[in-house]
Write a structure and sequence with these properties.
The complex is a heterodimer. Chain A is an alpha/beta fold. Chain A contains 24 helices and 33 strands. The longest helix of chain B is centred in the N-terminal third of the chain and has 15 residues. Classes of the chains: A alpha/beta, B alpha+beta.
């Protein structure tokens, strides 16, 4: 510890702390324009100049100067203030005085400082800049005339997002923040640059001129897209969510968000939201009252027993899932409940449940930065869980964590410094992991020795044979095994969910075996982290929203609906017509089921087939808890009252339970108290940032099944999955996400594009055994030859017309 | 003790004195008052180059103590900010003039118009069209 005096206050701080951070700790505010908590010190703006007794004669920038023992710092002496005034005057020579029309007004650091330092006039004059303003980007508006060259956008894009879309170009007075070749902004539109811009040079376009920042009420909540569990602050005015507000102190991610979280909020107040319940009369969905709709549903559910079934979305809160489960299992008497197409949760609910003894990840997102090695399997985290991607980037760049990747695509993760990519043929991940385990056993690298069953089962997975199957060389497999075993702490990551069909229980077993054999479980910075798709995927598993004793899983429920064994189907928030595999089958099942109830925010493709549609609330309108993928249980708070007549699902299922003669719990807090997985968490004590639910690991070595078959049908291979700009089908109702990714596409490798004479934007025809589809081609450097990738979110040209749920689909391609 | 009649006499003197002055009373509505330049009557949005000068900075609704001003900004074809909606609810307005004082672009003024009586509540909400300065 180092002790120093700042403005006559004694403060003791860690070695390597800067004067700026020490002052913050002492409660002394030093004005600054170029600093953000997450970024490295830069020293661009010179506003933080202070006087240091030991360094008399010059002014010292507080943000880049480390503290020394006995330092005496003064932060606002007349010379310091004079220097700061000059800095502001120099900035205001070129900064336009258009505060009345600048959306940053009221939230602008330059404006605040000019006010604080009473810069009423300027001793200096010069012509203002006349840079062209970039209005073309749908999400980020760049006005270089307002830029003060603090470099925060450049640094956040490089240090955290690792995209490098912005940089300083030109020199001297002509310096500006530019893009590649000074063209339009081409990036992933996460908006990190916008969030840190101290002035109005970078502004969120969807919020343009919508409101003044001071007129917004800020409501904190938890993002309703992916399973990362980021905290968000919603800016609300007149009961409408108008924007997301950046707060550098929010959550484990320090306010960092991805494009979906930051710009995809418009679905909450979308025009397309359902306002009233709908009932089908004469083959038309007509508006109805809640009483009519609910009594109709209750009538159908009454005594239905196992002829009723429910599919729920893991976007619902834990309490709502708990109530729906109670409704179905107790009041209706059916064990047919499931979510995420049944297979989407199997990696955790079956794989990790058996291998680790608990249906949850053992590691948390916080372990990523504390680890020595990250092994990312079958995932481009940057696409599926961008904020976790940022964590990995910071771990790799700042903490020197080694990064090993097993993937069938050359994603952005593999471009991080020092990343080692093992590019495998699709579906061969389990073989590869088994071979790695085999090497660990053979070379005596294990900490826990393998059970005889596992050892003998792995016998056939020699690296040489695995190399033939996976396309990864034996040496690469061996060096991965050695690197993993040698690391003191290691985290294994893989994605799990509806959109990742290959991430199943076998993959989880294989990954868990590595962690067990390598002794990388149950300690900080180590373990298994399954990155689940939806905001409450883990919660749905914790609540137990899976088929009960003798119950049918999601796909069997739909089969049953087609054959007539399921007569009443309640679909809460899922959109199987678009997101489940084998569209024709789903459509047939939903057409033929006797009575279909859909509870959703929108009249989705599935809701259009329903007999009763119940309008329900989005996450911004209700109370409850979400469990993030790393077991972090967080409370959500309503930001706005329910839209139209929509009701929270908690209320809907409570009412149905009482209509069927049951006694529902009165509040979400009471429901939460009844969830066994959270018995040690108190609902009312959940603060912002939440609490991790506790787990007890009971690791078991389970033999993962994998085929040692060299597969080569000669056809092209089609992979499906999630795109960066979307999550499930809900993001299609967010204008921000839609603006940058509005239609279905298929990614093609460069070599295949040349071979098939496909240009970017061409329509290509993909034919599988299930059907034909035409998609727009996107030539992408991340694709491997022979492999095509199409995201599954889009209803038009939906990929599930040719995808029947298998990990890969063999397709022929024609132009 | 002063004479109790004296104060009464002094008062009467003032009263009689006024008998010979020009009367203040106006025969309204036949006679119209001439209001001061600084009078704070109905608002008007100033016009320049055939457009309202207002840039929809939201400072007037922010400063308004009666919360009677509603502004909604829009983006025109040149990406400039303008008031797509500008409404003042005269039933709530207290004519303090803070809005005029707050305006950074001198787009708002208060006119001498004081006859604001109307028959329907809706008519007291002055839209942008009604507020635009008449030339």
């Amino acid at each position: 510890m180092v002790t120093l005096t700042i403005d006559d206050k004694q403060v003791a701080v860690e070695k390597d702390t800067t004067i700026y951070d020490a002052a913050k700790k002492a409660g002394v505010v030093i004005p600054i324009l170029c600093h953000d908590k997450k970024l490295k010190p830069f020293g661009a703006c010179r506003m933080c100049l202070v006087e240091v007794e030991q360094m008399k004669g010059r002014l010292i920038p507080a943000c880049t100067t480390p503290v020394t023992e006995g330092m005496i710092v003064r932060t606002s002496t007349p010379p310091v203030n004079k220097a700061r005034k000059l800095v502001l005057e120099l900035l205001l020579v070129h900064h336009p005085l258009d505060c009345p029309v600048c959306d940053k007004g009221g939230d602008c650091e330059l404006q605040n400082l000019a006010y604080d330092y009473k810069i009423n006039t300027n001793r200096l004059t010069d012509e203002k800049f006349h840079h062209e303003i970039d209005y073309n980007n749908p999400l980020i508006e760049r006005d270089q005339n307002r830029c003060i060259l603090c470099g925060k956008c450049v640094r956040i894009c490089d240090e955290i997002v690792s995209r490098g879309a912005l940089t300083f170009i030109n020199r001297g007075i002509k310096t500006k923040i530019g893009t590649e070749f000074d063209g339009p902004l081409s990036c992933e539109f996460c908006g990190s640059c916008v969030s840190v811009c101290p002035v109005g040079a970078l502004l969120p376009r969807p919020f343009k001129f919508k409101s003044r920042i001071w007129a917004l009420t800020k409501k904190t909540s938890v993002c309703g897209y992916c399973g990362t569990g980021c905290n968000v602050t919603l800016g609300v005015k007149d009961n409408k969510v108008l924007t997301t507000v950046y707060d550098e102190n929010q959550g484990f991610h320090n306010g960092q968000l991805c494009v979906r979280g930051r710009f995809g909020y418009q679905f909450i107040n979308s025009e397309k939201r359902l306002k009233t319940p709908l009932i089908r009369k004469n083959d038309q969905l007509v508006e109805a009252t809640w009483d009519e709709a609910l009594s109709l549903v209750a009538q159908r559910l009454k005594g239905a027993g196992s002829a009723a079934a429910a599919l729920a979305t893991p976007r619902m809160t834990n309490e709502e899932l708990f109530l729906l489960k109670q409704l179905m299992t107790v009041q209706v008497g059916s064990q047919n409940i499931d979510h995420s197409a049944g297979y989407g949760h199997s990696a955790v609910s079956e794989g990790l449940a058996k291998s680790l003894g608990v249906a949850a990840s053992s590691a948390t997102i916080l372990d990523i930065q504390k680890s020595d090695l990250i092994l990312a399997i079958k995932t481009d985290v940057y696409e599926t869980h961008p904020v976790v991607g940022f964590e990995i980037n910071m771990a790799v760049k700042n903490k020197g964590v080694a990064l090993q990747i097993i993937s069938d695509k050359k994603g952005k993760l593999s471009r991080l410094p020092g990343a080692n990519l093992l590019l495998n043929k699709p579906t061969t991940e389990v073989v590869l992991l088994n071979a790695v385990a085999k090497v660990m056993i053979d070379e005596n690298l294990t900490i826990t020795s393998a059970t005889p069953e596992l050892a003998s089962a792995l016998n056939e997975f020699t690296p040489e044979k695995a190399a033939l199957v996976t396309g990864v060389t034996a040496d690469e497999i061996k060096s991965l095994a050695r690197a993993y075993a040698a690391a003191d702490k290691a985290v294994i990551l893989f994605t799990a969910g509806l959109s990742y069909p290959g991430a199943d229980a076998q993959l989880a077993h294989a990954a868990a075996n590595l962690a067990i054999l390598g002794g990388k479980l149950g300690k900080e910075g180590s373990g298994i982290l399954a990155l689940q798709e939806k905001n409450n995927s883990q919660g749905a598993i914790d609540v137990g929203f899976v088929p009960g004793q003798g119950g049918l899983d999601a796909l069997r429920i739909l089969e049953g609906s087609a054959t007539g064994t399921i007569k009443t189907l309640l679909i809460a928030g899922e959109n199987p017509v678009v997101s489940y595999p084998a569209k024709a089958k789903i459509q047939k099942a939903l057409d033929s089921v006797e009575f279909l109830v859909v509870a959703d925010l929108f009249l989705t493709e599935t809701a259009q087939l329903a007999d009763v549609v119940l309008p329900v609330c989005s996450y911004a309108e209700k109370v409850g808890t979400f469990t993030a993928t790393d077991r972090r249980v967080q409370r959500i708070n309503p930001a706005i009252p329910p839209v139209g007549q929509s009701r929270s699902e908690f209320k809907v299922y409570s009412e149905l339970i009482s209509m069927l003669g049951g006694q529902p719990v009165a509040t979400p807090a009471e429901a939460f108290a009844q969830i066994p997985a959270y018995s040690d968490i108190k609902y009312n004590e959940l603060a912002e940032g939440g609490t991790f639910s506790s787990i007890t690991l009971q690791p078991v070595q389970i033999v993962p099944k994998a085929n040692m078959v060299v597969s080569d049908s000669g056809n092209y291979v089609l992979l499906t999955g999630a795109a960066l700009y979307h999550c499930g089908t809900m993001s299609l109702y967010g204008e921000g996400t839609l603006a940058v990714s509005s239609e279905a596409y298929v990614e093609v490798s460069r070599a295949d594009a040349v071979k098939l004479k496909i240009n970017d934007g061409d329509q290509v025809k993909l034919t599988s055994t299930d059907g034909v589809i035409e998609l727009k081609a996107r030539v992408s450097p991340r694709m491997v030859d022979g492999v095509f990738f199409a995201p599954y979110h889009f209803a038009d040209a939906s990929i599930n017309t040719i995808w029947s749920g298998s990990t890969v689909t063999s397709v022929t391609v024609a132009k | 003790m002063p004479n109790p009649i004296t104060p009464i006499m002094q008062g009467m003197k003032i009263t009689f004195g006024h008998l010979f002055k020009k009367p203040v009373t106006l025969m309204y509505p036949e006679e119209r008052p001439k209001v001061s330049e600084r009078y704070r009557g109905l608002h008007a949005l100033k016009v320049s180059h055939d457009k309202a000068k207002c840039v929809a900075c939201y400072l007037c609704p922010t400063v308004c103590p009666a919360k009677c001003i509603t502004v909604e900004a829009g983006e025109d074809e040149n990406h400039n900010k303008f008031a797509a909606k500008y409404e003042i609810d005269m039933l709530r307005c207290i004519f303090c003039g803070y809005c005029v004082e707050a305006c950074p672009v001198d787009a708002l003024k208060m006119t001498g118009q004081f006859e604001l009586a109307n028959y329907r509540r809706e008519d007291f909400v002055f839209s942008k069209e009604r507020l635009l300065e008449k030339k």
